Amino acid sequence: xxxxxxxxLSLTFALRQQNLERLSKLVQAVSxxxxxxxxxxxxxxxxxxxxxxxxxxxxxxxKWLLAAGARNCHSVTTxxxxxxxxxxxxxxxxxxxxxxxxxxxxxTETHVVxxxxxxxxxxxxxxxxxxxxxxxxxxxxSSLRQRPEPQVAGTxxxxxxxxxxxxxxxYNLTAQDVGSGTTNNSQACAQFLEQYFRDSDLAxxxxxxxxxxxxxxxxxxxxxxxxxxxxxxxxxLDVQYLMSAGANISTWVYSNPGRHESQEPFxxxxxxxxxxxxxxxVHTVSYGDxxxxxxxxxxxxxxxxxxxxxxxxxxxxxxxGDSGAGCxxxxxxxxxxxxxxASSPYVTTVGGTSFQNPFRVTNxxxxxxxxxxxxxxxxxxxxxxxxxAHFLSSSPNLPPSSYFNASGRAYPDVAALSDGYWVVSNxxxxxxxxxxxxxxPVFGGLLSLINEHRILxxxxxxxxxxxxxxxxxxxGLFDVTRGCHESCLNEEVQGQGFCSGxxxxxxxxxxxxxxxxxxxxxxxx
Length: 525
Description:
Elements: E1 8-15, H1 20-31, H2 44-51, H3 55-67, E2 71-75, E3 81-87, H4 88-94, E4 101-105, E5 110-114, H5 123-126, E6 129-133, E7 145-146, H6 164-170, E8 186-191, H7 199-209, E9 221-223, H8 233-245, E10 250-255, H9 265-273, E11 282-285, E12 289-290, H10 296-311, E13 315-319, E14 328-330, E15 333-335, E16 339-340, E17 348-355, E18 364-366, E19 373-379, H11 385-394, E20 408-411, E21 414-417, E22 421-425, E23 428-434, H12 436-456, H13 466-471, E24 477-478, E25 484-486, E26 496-499, E27 512-513, H14 515-522
Parallel strand pairs: 8-10, 8-11, 9-10, 11-13, 13-17, 17-21
Antiparallel strand pairs: 1-3, 1-6, 2-3, 4-5, 7-23, 12-16, 14-15, 17-18, 19-20, 22-23, 24-27, 25-26
């Protein structure tokens, strides 16, 4: 239905930044172990100095918004986002073509005001604004699945699903591999579904599954609104596994379920990153969208936000997605369908694996849902050229070349178990939960433990990991070489996407963590 013209909505204007070429060079310098600037990260203030919009951009946009009747505008430290309140009528006058409707949907009957039609910026502004947020994007939905329980014969020496002790056994962590409690090390997970976690679920999870390692049973800080009502499995999963893999490390949760109806939660999180000078070193995010469903202006700008984070030494881990190579039809022809932010060259993307025998702690094979492939937007970053070339020249069963862009950013970078997890939600233990939103917090937690060692030795945190990861050619990781992920169900590829093989592949990246070996390769400067 058409939205009431007097209804207030909040829109975020992404202002054109400066010096992005310099920012990109700086990211390379601080993230490349062979560079003299390695680990010498920028502060938020340094980043602001560099990217802040020009005085002309700032004054043009402000004048224009004031004239349109915008109120209550807030900026961020880097001055490159401006969030203002307008009525629906003012917003429609300001952005020609936009037409706002009220949508009601989702499990909590959320009311969202959005414009189904594209908008155009006035000519005078087009060169000063990258995009306007709060117009089109809907709250994302979860792709987590609860799978049917595998059938089992005999029960000696078996585990019935993945728990923290199974993860700690598989990835070779000892009871000593926990945070020291003496550093200012911290980690965070961000969730954008209409869900929240409950402290009581976390406490119950740790009571059931956290008995054999030191841990924290509550979250140090919640940023954003915590809704009320039922906890979501995804929110519970993220927090419970980040805090049991990165055990005894202070943990923040970015939560967005009780948000005001017009704000896009993912954008809110990016604004927070640009406005807080002291942030956790590792962020794990289980959120993704089809690359082709996003405007190029939006994707490029979000990628710049990840670049800003990398310059500051933040490690951003994104789930690779739960649809394998994906599939869509472009003018009658099938192609694989990459996911973003998984395809950003400035984040570390985590795929998924299963145990070869679902009831034993054995070696891992591909989890067929593990998202992976090649970006249609971002060119291949130099750090991965050799690895990708090796895969493309040696993989015995590549899909037809018309299905993917072999010169695009390839992902994932790494992987971890994503199949058959136990989660406590609303005080009930739930088995067989699967998805790369399980593997991502596990990998993130282990990186936090490595940061702990680095901080205690006087080294900077790991920061943007990919250049180092690819230079070390998967050292410290278990190579996953068996299995393929899913894709288009047609004659030509028959549901099969890429297959894993020795070394890097676009299904499980370099592989899964062998903690003591990974610590050894990543602890030194």
